[in-house]
Amino acid sequence: METRRISDALSVSPQITAADIDDLAKAGFRAIICNRPDGEGADQPLYEEIETAARRAGIEARYVPVTSGKVTDENADDFATAMRELPGPVFAYCRTGTRCATLWSLSQAEILDSAEILAATKSAGYDMAGVVRRIVNGGKTPTDTGDASYDIVIVGGGAAGIAVAASLKSRKPDLDVAIIDPADIHYYQPGWTMVGGGIFDAATTAKTMGSLIPKGVHWVKSAVAAFEPDDNAVVLDGCRVVKYQRLIVCPGIKLDWHAVDGLVETLGKNGVTSNYRYDLAPYTWELVSGMKQGRAIFTQPPMPIKCAGAPQKAMYLSGDHWHKTGSLKNIDIQFNNAGGVLFGVKDYVPALEEYVKKYDANLNFFHNLVAVDGAAKKAWFDVAKPDTEVTRVEMEFDMMHVCPPQVAPDFIWVSPLADAAGWVDVDQSTLRHARYDNIWSLGDVMNAPNAKTAAAARMQAPTVADNIVADIAGKSPVSAYNGYGSCPLTVERGKIVLAEFGYGGVLLPSFPKWVIDGTKPTRAAWLLKEKLLPPVYWRGMLKGKEWLAKPEKVSAR
After folding, report:
1. Of the listed 34, 94, 100, 307, which one is catalytic?
2. 459 assigned to some structural domain
3. What mean pLDDT comes out for the span 77-89?
4. CA 101 from centre of chain
5. For this UniProt entry, which segments traverse the membrane (predicted)?
6. Comparing 236 with 260, which gets the higher pLDDT?
7. Mean of the pLDDT values across residues 389-405?
8. How many CB atoms lie within 10 A of CB 346?
9. N- or C-end of the chain: fewer Cβ atoms within 10 A?
10. What pLDDT, in 10s, does the model give residues 195-248?
């Protein structure tokens, strides 16, 4: 007997026999639902046999037969009624378990978020793609999908989405392009490290989404619920359906604050902050500028995260302020990194280690933040050193800067577009989807092994735009993404180690060494970060001008 757990209240399986009932009773099930009509298969026991055995074992049973491939709204209502009336936990079965999973999905559609439903059924091994529109529509069969259709649909209006839209329109102005994004505000997230260091004002990193959507591009102000790539459709919240000829997926990354026990409850107070949120970055500077003594912890979770250098940037800028104000000798800096190295590209490590030494910071590798008690000023870390058992350590703090764990958005990892780890599955060179020829992805959400930075998206946008225009013309890809990413490591106020690299850690500097030697802290790199990169972002990247963004060309075949 193959039992698959969908929720605390329900497990499902393929067809069972009366001989399985005792095992179900021992497993703690108190009720059984049969969703398979009698006589569907020649080797199928009658429901009455199952019911008799269940009664003998002290288990209630209910017959809710559903015709294969024809799960009606009434069937879902009947299943919901049975789940309410029967004692739990409940065990349901049909020929394969799919009907049971479908009935549960539809019955929960008005209670749970669609991504939660799709995640639960996917984990149990059931694909609900065939009823996703009904799930999004509250479990009922849609009567009017209200379809819209565009040449290009872009999911996500962040740096990658707006940049690729602008790049497409600059190449082919007649394209009918739509961006789907529910947000009102667009943020220049690379600026938040500077906000946390007291250099930028937070307001300068935010603009209204409407002011940034490229001219001639439609803005569909809605959240995406699901993808139907076989039908070239995106399903929105409320069950509206948007059709496309070609799709670009770039909704960014999910900051999983809830993955750390107690973190959500203490963010923004009790000395716990993060530059990964617009509203918290000013609190970072408030804490840093007000701290005269005590322990400051800076955390970094397992990869992947966006801007892998950001956790240590916060440490360096804080240490620099305490150094210049004479407080550093009274402050214990702890950098707790879930990984095993300070920075993934070794060429930049010597310069960074000099600043670790300057600020007398302790590097604690393989330390992953798992819990926080803000009021008690305590944090717990799982220490997972190679070839040793995981141990948990407690650390007290006066200030803690947290970089949250990061995962693919829920509606991505439960979709047909995702790889086994939940990221959009692409060819790392062309950024075309590995299985769907009319889908591309860029930015933080896709699975190419590059650094997740705004600079990476700046280079990816023209690559995707070039290749889509070539595809429209019936040609093979013409541009290749080399994995370029940039991480301006703010090691002190006024100096930056400008890390620029591609796939495999290959150095890809944008400037000659005599202008900026990226392996050393320079004033020129600081001026680039402080003065030049914001206008490059707002006036170049988001306008399709593609400054500092020239993808490699490949010969058309």
Report:
1. 307
2. yes
3. 93
4. 26
5. none
6. 260
7. 96
8. 10
9. C
10. 999 999 999 999 999 999 999 999 998 888 889 898 898 988 766 789 999 999
Distance separating alpha carbons of residues 402 and 409, to the nearest angstrom: 20
Strand partners, 490: 496
Q: What Å distances lie between residue 515 and 43, 346, 354, 524, 550, CA to CA?
A: 78, 21, 22, 7, 19
Both 417 and 486 in one domain: the answer is yes
Omega of the bond prior to 509 within 30 degrees of 0, cis?
Answer: no
Domain shared by 174 and 153, yes or no: yes
Torsion sign over Cα 487, 490, 494, 497: negative
In a domain, residue 47? The reply is: yes
User: Can you say how many angstroms the Cα of residue 182 is from the centroid of all Cα atoms in its chain?
Assistant: 16
- d(CA 128, CA 310) in angstroms, rounded, equals 38
Active site residue 307: yes
Tokens of 348: 């930049």
Over the stretch 485-496, which tens digit does the pLDDT of each residue have?
999 999 999 999
Is the same domain home to 428 and 317? no
Q: Which of the following is catalytic: 34, 94, 250, 487?
A: 487
Q: Check if the beta carbon of residue 386 is closer than 8 Å to that of residue 367.
A: no
Sequential DSSP letters for 382-425: EE--TTS--EEEEEE-SEEE-PPPEE--HHHHTSTTB-TTSSB-
> Does the annotation mark 100 as catalytic?
no
139-143 CB contacts, 8 Å cutoff, 24+ apart = 139/73, 139/76, 139/105, 139/106, 139/107, 139/108, 139/109, 139/110, 140/73, 140/109, 141/73, 142/239
If one counts the domains in the chain, the total is: 3
